[in-house]
Amino acid sequence: MKTELSVIYFVESQPFFSVIIPAFNRGHIIGRAISSVLGQSFQNFELIVVDDGSQDNTGEVVKQVGDERVRYFYQTNSGVSAARNIGANVANGINLIFLDSDDELGEEALAKFNSVIHRGEVIQFGFVKVNETSSILKYPEKNKFMSKLPGSFCIKRDVFKSISGYDERLAYSENTEMFHRLSLIGVRIHEEQFISLRYYESITGGSKNRHNKIAGLKYILKKHDKTVSKNVKFLYNQIIGVESFKVGDYQMARYYLFKALKIHPWAWKCIMRILNTYIIQSSQRICSKTEKN
């Protein structure tokens, strides 16, 4: 794998945080993510940008930042999980924080992480979903079967390396899979209600993202079949069913919704979703016959 160092920063003392941003063709937007990190009141950090084979001006934008704390690496396109792992491998920080190139680290996030870092090997904060005008769309809801996915999280570098980082076969749900492995080895995960991330909802890639989500959860269910709880299996099967429904694959939707129903037979929402697949398919057949006549 080709890795190119464009900006080298020799630190006098080890940075407390390494903030890692993977990026692919994000020249038009990555400046926002970088600024959100550089503007933190807690300053003992390095910022690592791993360019995952961009064909736009991502590299130029990063190099123009002109801050010695910013380190830029280039790799041939290998996926977001591989990019994050590269960032972790070259990181000097005691703790790692991963930030997507189209999101923003919340104000005072690093200071807050620093204040509670002693409470666990992994510190997990919440997020708020916003649109491109920065209007709040929604706050995350906690599922009764599993903790909400982190908006941003801080993990000790040695803990991250002890589980070999991210599974590079995943393009979606990679955090979910990694957190499951962390739980299996008894890592202390401390949750805080502090909003540490502004997550920008994308208006593009909807269908592709749904297919990636389906593939990711299928992979997790297969890989961790013996260690995932029944309640989490119920949740994942139901999510796969719902996402399959949204992309128009009603047969697969029913298959996974029925699998969920076997775990919790009286889940009425699951039953209604199965019925909806039959209703929509029947309506489509009627419309098709009408058009032919």
Helices and strands in order:
Blueprint: E1 3-7, E2 17-23, H1 30-38, E3 45-52, H2 58-63, E4 70-75, H3 80-90, E5 95-98, E6 104-105, H4 109-116, E7 122-130, E8 136-138, E9 153-156, H5 157-162, H6 174-184, E10 189-200, H7 206-223, H8 230-246, H9 250-263, H10 268-292
Parallel strand pairs: 2-3, 2-5, 3-4, 7-10
Antiparallel strand pairs: 1-4, 5-9, 6-10, 7-8, 7-9
Helix pairs in contact: 7-8, 8-9, 9-10
Report on the structure:
With 293 residues, this protein is of the alpha/beta class. The protein folds into 2 domains: 3-203, Spore Coat Polysaccharide Biosynthesis Protein SpsA, Chain A (Alpha-Beta Complex), CATH 3.90.550.10; 207-292, Serine Threonine Protein Phosphatase 5, Tetratricopeptide repeat, CATH 1.25.40. Helices cover 43% and strands 20% of the residues. The chain is built from 10 helices and 10 strands. It has helices at residues 30-38, 58-63, 80-90, 109-116, 157-162, 174-184, 206-223, 230-246, 250-263, 268-292, and strands spanning 3-7, 17-23, 45-52, 70-75, 95-98, 104-105, 122-130, 136-138, 153-156, 189-200. Strands 1, 2, 3, 4, 5, 6, 7, 8, 9 and 10 form a 10-stranded mixed beta sheet that branches. Strand 2 (17-23), helix 1 and strand 3 form a beta-alpha-beta unit. The radius of gyration is 21 Å and the shape is globular. Mean pLDDT is 85; it is low at 4-11, 133-140 and 142-148. InterPro entries: Glyco_trans_2-like, Glycosyltransf_2, Nucleotide-diphossugar_trans. This is Glycosyltransferase 2-like domain-containing protein. Residues 18-141 form the Glycosyltransferase 2-like domain. Pfam families: Glycos_transf_2.
